[in-house]
């Protein structure tokens, strides 16, 4: 007898830096979501589709839920809640190497109201020194809420990632295939390119900058051997613009070179990248600007 085909939507939630984006990438096997060691940099809902013989898992990447201080913060929280109500499986990510805290308790409380199956995913297991420490963490996590299952993983070493997807697939509803076989992501290329530029621009900047950064891909021009990409990186203040550009443009050049390499990897073709830094004052508070930037 053929196994039942199951397909549905899943997302990872958890406090900032819990490892959600890295795990999404490890599962889909391609760099589609932005990762960074700065909290709250995942802005767009990015889907990747995992194809299995017995089903499909459509992964939706959400930004972290946080205390809203600006209009952008509120929009992000709305986006998170909408996503949560639309998925079949939610993986609450809790790092193996950090104590279970109030943030985790708050999120698991919010999740208990939903119809989705909630799994606890104990991430970054490569960072705990021994099995005893891991066992203690699994116990602490089990006391947080009534999870359907608890799965420890390391997205970096790859340990247990396959096991996690088996568990996620098991809790998907019976359903026909949701996406054709060759679809890895349904996010428009433009958004993915914008994310890669944003990721590159965030590398090595000071803490206050990430919240003030947005990327808009203005134009993509097809030429015979190269795709020309024109993009604007928005910051809030001219002092930030100076940081982004660096001494004699050195930093901007670095950002561009790194982003171009990543975009070329993503699209498998030669890219010409033209980056401009622009100041959009207080863009996080301005609904018109937010809409323009896709929020
Ligand atoms: N050692 C180790 N580091 C990891 C692992 N997963 C993620 N990290 C690191 O933890 C940091 C945060 O990972 P992200 O995947 O960006 O976390 P996130 O939960 O998506 O973060 P936000 O976008 O801020 O919500 C990055 O520096 C990752 O490289 C893992 O399995 N092992």
Automatic annotation (TrEMBL):
Renumbered residue ranges of the record's region G3: 61-64
Region G4: start-end pairs: 123-126
Binding site for GTP: 14-21, 61-65, 123-126
Region: G2, residue numbers: 40-44
Membrane topology: Peripheral membrane protein
Gene3D superfamilies, per the entry: 3.30.300.20, P-loop containing nucleotide triphosphate hydrolases
Swiss-Prot/TrEMBL GO biological process terms: ribosomal small subunit assembly
Keyword field contains RNA-binding: yes
Pfam families assigned: KH_2, MMR_HSR1
Annotated keywords: Cell membrane, Cytoplasm, GTP-binding, Membrane, Nucleotide-binding, Ribosome biogenesis, RNA-binding, rRNA-binding
Annotated region (G5), positions in chain: 153-155
Stretches assigned to the Era-type G domain: 6-174
Family matches, as HAMAP family: GTPase_Era
Assembly and oligomerization: Monomer.
Protein name: GTPase Era
Organism, scientific name: Catenuloplanes niger
């Amino acid at each position: 007898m053929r196994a039942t085909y199951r397909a549905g939507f899943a997302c990872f939630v958890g406090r900032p830096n819990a490892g959600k984006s890295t795990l999404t990438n490890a599962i889909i096997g391609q760099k589609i979501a932005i990762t960074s060691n700065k909290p709250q940099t995942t802005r767009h809902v990015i889907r990747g589709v995992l194809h299995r013989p017995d089903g499909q898992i459509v992964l939706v990447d959400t930004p972290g839920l946080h205390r809203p201080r600006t209009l952008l913060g509120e929009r992000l929280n709305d986006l998170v809640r909408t996503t949560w109500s639309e998925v079949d499986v939610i993986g609450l990510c809790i790092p193996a190497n950090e104590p279970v805290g109030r943030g985790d308790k708050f999120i698991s409380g919010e999740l208990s109201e939903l119809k989705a199956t909630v799994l606890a995913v104990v991430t970054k297991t490569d960072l705990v020194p021994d099995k005893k420490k891991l066992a203690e963490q699994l116990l602490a996590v089990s006391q947080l809420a009534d999870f359907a299952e608890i799965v420890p993983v390391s997205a970096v070493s790859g340990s247990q990632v396959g096991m996690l997807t088996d568990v996620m697939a098991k809790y998907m509803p019976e359903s026909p295939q949701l996406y054709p076989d060759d679809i890895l992501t349904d996010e428009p290329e433009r958004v993915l390119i914008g994310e890669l530029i944003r990721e590159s621009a965030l590398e090595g900047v000071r803490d206050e900058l990430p919240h003030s950064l947005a990327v808009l891909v203005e134009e993509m021009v097809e030429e015979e051997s190269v795709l020309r990409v024109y993009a604007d990186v928005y910051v809030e203040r001219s002092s930030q613009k100076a940081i982004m550009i660096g001494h004699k443009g050195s930093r901007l050049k670095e950002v561009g070179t790194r982003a171009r390499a990543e975009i070329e990897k993503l699209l498998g073709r030669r890219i010409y990248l033209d980056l401009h830094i622009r100041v959009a004052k207080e863009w996080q508070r301005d609904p018109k600007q937010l809409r323009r930037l896709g929020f």
